[in-house]
Amino acid sequence: MKTFATQRKIQILLLLLISLVFSSLRAIADESFQPVFKPTLTIEKAAGIIKIDGKLDDVGWENVRKATNFVERSPGDNTKPEVETEAFMTYDDSKLYVALVCHDNPAAIRATMCQRDQFSGDDAACFLVDTYGDAAWAYEFFVNPYGVQKDLLWSSVGGEDPGIDLIWESAALITDSGYQVEMAIPFASIRFPNQDVQTWRVEFWRNRPRESFKQYTWSANDRNEQCWPCQWGTVEGIKNVHPGKGIEILPSIVTYQSGSLKGPRFKNDNPDGELSVGGKYAITSDMTVEATINPDFSQIESDAAQIDVNTTYALMYPEKRPFFQEGSDIFRTMFNSFYTRTINDPQLAIKLTGRMGKNSVGFLSALDQNTPYIIPLPEGSVLINPGKSFANILRGSRAFGNNSMIGFMINDRRLDGGGSGTIATFDYDFRLSKSYSTDGQFIASRTIEPVDTSLTSGLKGILFDKGKHTAVFDGESFYGSAFITRLKRNARSWNFLIDYDQVSPSYRTEIGFDPVIDYRNLTVYQSYNIYPKNSIFVRITPQASIYRRWSFDRVKKIEENDIGIDGELKIAQVYFSVNFGQSNELWGGVQFDHLWGVNTDLSGWISNRLGCDLEYRQGVGIDRHRFIKENETNINTSLFIKPVDRLTIEPDFSYFKSTQIGTGVKLYQVYITRTRIKFQANRQLSFRLVVQYDDFEQTWEVDPLLTYRVNSLSVLYIGSSYNYYNLILDPSDQSRWKMTSRQFFMKLQYLFQT
Fold first, then answer.
1. Counting C-beta atoms within 10 Å of the first and last residue's C-beta, which end of the chain has fewer, N or C?
2. pLDDT class for 310, splitting at 50, 70, 90?
3. Dihedrals φ, ψ of 649, to 5°?
């Protein structure tokens, strides 16, 4: 027994000694690790053919130079990653080739088989490229371990735009030592200088979501540097390649059969269909013109409903139509001076976009059949439809220095029955130093109302601009203005924002989204990032802000003070935030004091199969229709459930309850529930079902859809839409739910390229 005990002690001592040796060796290795800022890679033309299959065994990959020495940029700060990553890059006469080998435990890899652009929370290998090297805009290419693509366009003005859909190839393969991806990006799909030798800023990037969402990059990252592409590495050696020119034609056909409830009976319409065609032509390597005739601008998936029982403003919805998504970064400004959904049902649309070095230009012209018109008011807005209109938008900008920009925009819309709206705007974004910048926008507007009081009969008696003008369409004309300026500090620790903006009482933008007039706003915000060491926290950020609003005649409308804290944990990618606000507000001529609200948000990925987000608000606010104080409770929650890699279930739930202060009388209690179920058979074929119930409107919506996708633009859709309303048209009918409308549809579009 003593011998056994002695041997056991010796074994334990040896294990401890070995552990100490390996720990020491690892510490020495970590100390010797040196992050590289702005690395350089010189590449050569491929020696042979490369087939995009994820295997990396083609002749073309032999002796290709690679990028190594990746750093962990988040949550670590240029620390040595837990796993290795290697990136390879080469080219031929027509394509750029990129490969990343991501070493890892294959059992820990997170991946979803889904449609392009729709994965989140997955492992992903990424390639980022600023072809002009001026940090004005850049392409982002992501591939998950199943080879699913995601592409974005980053710009210094608007950040990341997911609307872009480029034609490129990708493949991936999960191996015994991790996974690897291949990308082939045609030179015809991207824009770059038309010169014999190219020098590009690039970044090789890797997302590795585990307990923390880890990000590894080829280039070391300076958290005090607010210019993102300025920190990327450089790739040299690309010679004698030129941007593609050619013609793209995108014909599409839509067939459908609709029915609706008319009186007590459901009536089916005859089948119908429409043919439309769109085209794109590269005038030069930097300039592209697009046109579409009789476009099908219907959305395959309807907008998620929003709770607006206590809202007096028009709601803003995201743009999902491809024609308007492409090049949307060019038209983006600080004010929403061009809101694409104000062009609702165009019969003809033409768009010109160009990126010529440091200059960007965009022009869009559309003949709209049904025009949304937002009439802004000091405490609300009204949405009407005056019929046909002709809209023109011209946008130009120029980058200069290191991530600075100036730009202009001119928008004009002419209504078919008379009346017009025109704005001219100048905007800027100046980088003052690594951490400081200032931006702003000035707008002048000119409005001529149509003469049609029947469209605005409900607005009689409503005056604005000190009673100079009425809200009805009576042919008045007036000028207006808007202005915003900000001073920002974005750095590793201390950040702040000083924001002043104003909109005059007579300002109106008919192609933008500015639903409120007659205000002057001042916001001061600051936060401080804390990165604890040897803690459960990745980051803790306390923050505070003040907000003040006055009318143009200097009447104080809102005063609000907020304090809060947010942060991230090293457990389940948890993000949390808690905010407390106290405010006083003058609304509808009534002064409301001692308003308050507590907002909390908690989100994370419990596992590869389950993600969640929960938002909760409790406070005292204003019932803006009854002009009384109310107790408010608002809950928004969503789940991401993935039983298997090809099936995802995404339920969302929004709830709003209001009771009167003092009496406890219930004012509102409504909810909206929406569930999206997606099954991906392979990278081409998928099925999606959306079911939504709106308790406020008492409506159900059911939308099944089958999709076969060849590439980002060549797609076949077969689907239907069912809408139900809680009606009792016939007392003898025991079924209260009636189908109010239904539509079957098929859409086929195919991209032809020359």
1. N
2. very low
3. -125, 125
Which residues face 528 on adjacent strands?
494
Handedness of CA 588, 589, 592, 596 (dihedral sign): positive
Q: What are phi and psi of 106, to 5 degrees?
A: -60, -25
Distance between CA atoms of residues 57 and 52, nearest Å: 10
- Strand order of the β-sheet with 178-186 is 66-67, 85-91, 95-103, 178-186, 169-175
Q: Answer whether 320's CB lies under 8 Å from 301's CB.
A: yes
Tens of pLDDT along 342-377? 888 888 999 998 877 778 899 999 999 888 888 888
Give the contacts of 264 (CB within 8 A, at least 6 positions apart): 729, 730
pLDDT tens-place string over residues 519-532: 999 999 999 999 99
User: Residue 24's pLDDT is what?
Assistant: 47
What Å distances lie between residue 122 and 108, 209, 400, 475, CA to CA?
11, 7, 36, 56
Percent of the chain with pLDDT over 90: 61
**455: DSSP letter:** G
- Measured in Å, how far apart are the chain's first and last C-alpha atoms? 85
- pLDDT on residue 303: 47
For the record, the structure tokens of 545 come out as 């802000």
Q: How confident is the model at residue 27 (pLDDT cuts 50, 70, 90)?
A: very low
- Which is higher by pLDDT, 400 or 30? 400
pLDDT at res. 67: 96
The label of the residue with tokens 């450089």 reads 234
CA distances from 426 to 257, 259, 401, 448 (A): 47, 48, 19, 22
Overall size of the chain counted in residues:
754
| pTM for this predicted structure | 0.84
Domain 34-239 architecture: Sandwich (2.60)
Q: Taking all residues of the chain, what is their mean pLDDT, rounded to a whole number?
A: 88
- H/E segment holding residue 17: helix 2-32
Per-residue pLDDT band at 8 (split at 50, 70, 90): low
- Identify whether the C-beta of residue 506 lies closer than 8 Å to the C-beta of residue 469: yes
Min mean pLDDT across 316-320, 470-474, 584-588, 717-721 is at: 316-320
In order of 379, 381, 561, 628, 657, the CA distances from 621 in angstroms are 15, 20, 15, 9, 12
Please give, one letter per residue, the 3-state secondary structure of 91-123: ECCCEEEEEEEEECCHHHCCCCCCCCCCCCCCC
- Report phi then psi at 656, rounded to 5: -135, 130
As a whole number of Å, the CA-based R_g of the chain is: 29
Neighbours of 493 (CB within 10 A): 12
Tokens of 658: 């209001």
Measured CA to CA in angstroms, residue 310 lies from 200, 385, 631 at distances of: 51, 23, 13
pLDDT for position 667: 92
Name residue, tokens 């919506």. 701
Closest CA to 437 of 392, 486, 401: 486
- Tens of pLDDT, residues 445-458: 999 999 988 888 88
- Measured CA to CA, the distance from residue 619 to residue 581 in angstroms comes to 9
How does pLDDT run across 137-180, given as a tens digit for each residue? 899 999 999 999 999 988 777 778 787 888 899 999 999 999 99
* Per-residue tokens: 390: 């002709």
In whole angstroms, what is the distance from residue 582 CA to residue 558 CA?
11
Q: What is the secondary structure of 146-190 as a DSSP string?
A: T--EEEEEEETTTEEETT-----EEEEEEETTEEEEEEEEEGGGS
23: alpha, beta or left? (left if phi > 0; alpha if psi -120 to 50): alpha
Contact 654, 636 (CB under 8 A): yes
Query: Contact, 220 vs 72, CB < 8 A?
Result: no
Q: Which amino acid is at 132?
A: Y
Residue ranges of domains in the chain: 1-32, 34-239, 286-298+315-517
Residue 70 near residue 83, CB atoms below 8 Å: no
User: Which residue do the tokens 């905007």 mark?
Assistant: 427
